Amino acid sequence: MRTQVAIIGAGPAGLLLSQLLNRAGVATMVLERQSRAHVLSRIRAGVLEQGTVDLLNRAGVGARMAREGQHHSGCYLTHDQQMIRIDFAQACGAEVMVYGQTEVTRDLYRAQDAIGAQHVHGVKNVVLHDLAGKTPYVTYDLDGVTHRIDCDFIAGCDGFHGVSRKSIPESVRREYEKVYPFGWLGVLSETPPLHEELIYANHPRGFALASMRNPMLSRYYIQVPLSDRVEDWSDAAFWDELKLRLPSDLARDLVTGPSIEKSIAPLRSFVSEPMRFGGLFLCGDAAHIVPPTGAKGLNLAASDVHYLSEGLIAHYTTRDSSGLETYSEKALARIWQAMRFSWSVTTMMHRFPEHGAYDQQMQRVELMQLSANPAAQRLFAENYTGLPY
Ligand code: RFL
Ligand code: PHB
Description:
By secondary structure, the protein is an alpha+beta fold. The protein has helices at residues 12-23, 36-41, 50-58, 63-68, 88-92, 101-114, 235-245, 248-251, 297-318, 322-325, 327-349, 357-372, 374-385, and strands spanning 5-8, 28-32, 47-48, 70-72, 74-79, 82-87, 96-98, 118-121, 124-129, 137-142, 145-150, 153-156, 174-189, 199-202, 208-214, 217-225, 259-273, 276-277, 280-282, 288-289.
């Protein structure tokens, strides 16, 4: 079997790339290890930058997002009992859209089905071949039979644990990593959100976040030690801890209910350079991970897809390969800026086991600066709503 671009992974990066390429007449084949139901059961990101919204609209998948997504023109950072509102609209004239990654993925699958894009789910033993040569190909097993796809290019959209990044020789890869000494315990519940905007809470007991998906679906997180397991946290214990970390006026109004999803995600910053090796291009979490504090993971996957799809479409339509040549450099420039923002918000908002009184004063001063200084507010707002592509 032959295609132009073989795409490994049907997360948001793989599906969005496939959608943009197919609409431009470039043939793709998406290989996914999990079932479609499994991909759609994952609860992850919730905040979309304007650039991501624009790209989804360009991919023809924006209709339901326009109806059901919520426009947010600010968010809150809390500290002690104080609430600092960052007004994105006033600080930098931009806003974000709250619309879950699960819904983005569902919309992409529907659009892909409508144009007859090719996906194979449940593949095993994906191996990438001849990446440095002229005839790259992919082999995989399905139901005990080995298949081969010949292609011009391979897009590695298979997330942090995928096979693509590891197919680049170690002598070529440069990896940068920071592992944080805590995770986020997340709960999804069919309750009205605490507030109409997101609330990021810095508290002596640890960080908390009150987010949402829609008027009857809330998403909350609390910082937990890496040694905690989901089974250690009953719903009642989660709600009690969350209330302790929110300003008391707000906590009084929190509506609690049974959790419909509960999971712990470790926090990590990671970048692998370069993002191209011969015929292989890495995209999204396959090349980089950010801690979720800045809401950047999904948005970086989208900006990678933007650069890569432009490069591939120009290559096929005008024989101009300059976009492919500069892909890694352009994507990485934006990624490192998002790395800095995610690291700085994570550092400002969490309790670190090794931190003492000095570090806590630094957090307090940073928060005070954000509450009083328009330049600091603008920097935060520009980064949160998304730097230009
Ligand atoms: P994904 O979504 O991980 O998709 C990769 C896909 O590749 C498949 N795969 C393979 N397929 C074939 N062969 C193999 N060998 C394969 N290995 C893996 C996987 O099954 C999967 O379907 O990466 P992508 O597309 O780059 O998208 C990135 C985003 O998903 C990610 O950045 C965000 O979800 C990160 N993230 C969050 N980002 C935010 O902006 N805000 C958040 O609140 C937020 N919460 C989260 C998150 C990531 C989490 N993870 C990864 C554990 C919460 C969690 C729990
Ligand atoms: C979420 O709603 O899941 C969410 C929102 C903002 C973040 C992280 C997660 O920074």
